[in-house]
Amino acid sequence: MIKIIKAKDYNEMSRKAANIISAQVIMKPDCVLGLATGSSPLGIYAQLIDWYKKGDLDFSQTKSVNLDEYRGLSHDNPQSYYYFMNENFFKHININPANTHVPNGMELNAQKACADHEAIIQELGGIDLQLLGLGNNGHIGFNEPGVAFEKETHCVHLTESTIRANSRFFEKLEDVPTQAYTMGIKSIMMAKKILIIVSGEGKSDIVKEAFFGPVIPQVPASILQMHPDVTLVADADALSKCTTLI
Q1: Which residues are tagged catalytic?
Q2: Under 8 Å CB-to-CB from 81, ≥6 apart: which residues?
Q3: Which CATH number fits the domain that encloses residue 119?
């Protein structure tokens, strides 16, 4: 059963989701946070930074593991997820950089890169709370429609729709990497708690499909219906097609 928290807009969604993450950090200072990139979590990170600067949060013992990274992008590449996390979150709080883990995009041996990231998750004792966004086609992380639910961290060939969606962050479409390393569905489902955030009317159809439709690999996020502790924080626009179901 997915717990649904409604928000009136993106800003309220971000605050409510940040509240859940901050509670996790306060209750367990040495927790392992699974983190996500993209435009959806930016408001959450800004809110957490604000609370940290006010003295309300302490990340000194917290550890983090990121969902994914583009294959072939170095840490100093402005489009890499390592760079994104540092610029938008890590460098503004007191988390120990040694405790932050993003898949190594420069390890071109895909099998090694994926095994290394999976080993880190195991060494940390698993993820306490995993933050997720929701792709237009139902993907979570870079797990595209049709990917087997049992997969752990793996290398994916990005679909045309995902490449197109991510092209807004690059100068031109041809610059978008076509492969990425991502935590698999199995890795995500092993997290003790999952927090998924969705905003905007453009996501309303996939929200209905993912959380109120059948559990099928063609809609990767639908598997979250099977997790024992999932919270969906979504704004009114994203929930607009689900009003009769909630």
Answers
A1: 68, 137, 139, 144
A2: 37, 66, 68, 69, 70, 102, 105
A3: 3.40.50.1360
CB atoms near residue 21 (< 10 Å): 23
Range of the domain at 191: 2-198+209-235
Tell me the H-state helices in the chain. 10-27, 42-53, 81-88, 110-123, 160-166, 185-189, 204-212
Q: What share of the chain is helix, strand, coil (3-state, %, to 5)?
A: 40, 20, 45
Tell me the pLDDT tens digit for each residue of 197-238.
999 999 999 999 999 999 999 999 999 999 999 999 999 999
Position 219 in a domain: yes
Task: Evaluate whether residue 244 is within a structural domain.
Answer: no
Q: Classify residue 196 by burial, with Cβ atoms within 10 Å: 0-12, 13-18, 19+.
A: buried
CA distance 138 to 136: 6
What's the CA gap between 243 and 246, in Å, rounded? 6
